[in-house]
Amino acid sequence: MKMMMEIQDISKQYKGKKILDNACLSIYAHQIIALVGKNGSGKSTLLKIIAGLIDTDNGAVIKHQQSLKIGYVPEITPSHILFTPEEYLFHMGRIRGMAPKQLQQKIDDLLEMFHLQESRNSRIIHFSKGMKQKVIIMQAMLENTDLLILDEPLSGLDPKAQSDLEETLSILKDNGLSIVLTCHETKLLQHLVDTVFVIQNNKIIQTDSFSSNHTQHNRLIFEIADPALLENLLPFLDIQQQNQVNSDHFEIVTVIKLEDTSQILEDLLRNHASIKQLMPINYQEEHFYRQF
Ligand SMILES: Nc1ncnc2c1ncn2[C@@H]1O[C@H](COP(=O)(O)OP(=O)(O)OP(=O)(O)O)[C@@H](O)[C@H]1O
């Protein structure tokens, strides 16, 4: 694998408070990296260092590719944009000095890649959070990008929007991009991320990659009219999220054992639940990341 960037023994302090201390990280081409860690552990700081937005106190950030193009998407998504995505992206591209014809072609390509063609003439202010997140990522990709840096891209998205964004990020990776993202909700990431780094005690620690998953547990997402109907199933369900979709429907995200799956599905269908997603999961990793 071709190395894109190396973070060598970097240290960073804010007002005398140590955030990163001799931290190291390598980023390879076609790789998706997740950075996890407790609040305030330094994830956003590291992303900004990778993006070249802030300096380090010590150490080196070495780019192994000439003119490495980096797109950075901060954690806060501006939500009151009155433009349509097409207008917004056009203005942002022009501000960066892109030629109108080339810019329009890029916007068309991005709208298609992010499945937003049908909403190209609607105003961003009326978009869902997931759609707004996509527009902000598209904005970071207007110029050809090698490395995309995303601060908490899945934060605040419902499970469906998370899966949708995951799928888009996976397509971006297939198209040759590398991605570094921070995440608290790593539980939905195991099909996407190649390598996970944990920031702990000011250091960056690499954990096992997700690729060695074994599949003894499944993630099951379903809708049901009344969670009270789950009473008999509760010992078999590890409920991770419960969202009220409307006045008479709840969406429930659970982890279940492989051997319990058929019985649980049968019971749910008997209670008129509708199954939205069933996929294998590595439960050990799920437990590991919960501590963050
Ligand atoms: N510009 C700054 N000036 C002073 N302190 C800062 C600055 N930016 C970040 N910090 C501090 O550095 C520490 C690390 O912040 P950072 O945002 O990198 O953490 P994080 O892991 O991304 O946190 P979270 O998960 O809450 O987003 C925090 O204690 C934060 O208050």
Automatic annotation (TrEMBL):
Domain ABC transporter, first and last residues per copy: 5-226
Keyword tRNA processing appears in the UniProt entry: no
InterPro entries per the UniProt record, alphabetical: AAA+_ATPase, ABC_transporter-like_ATP-bd, ABC_Transporter_VariousFunc, P-loop_NTPase
Taxonomy, superkingdom: Bacteria
UniProt keyword list: ATP-binding, Nucleotide-binding, Transport
GO molecular function, one term: ATP binding
PANTHER family documented for this protein: ABC TRANSPORTER ATP-BINDING PROTEIN ALBC-RELATED (PTHR42939)
Protein name from the UniProt record: ATP-binding cassette domain-containing protein
Organism: Lysinibacillus pakistanensis
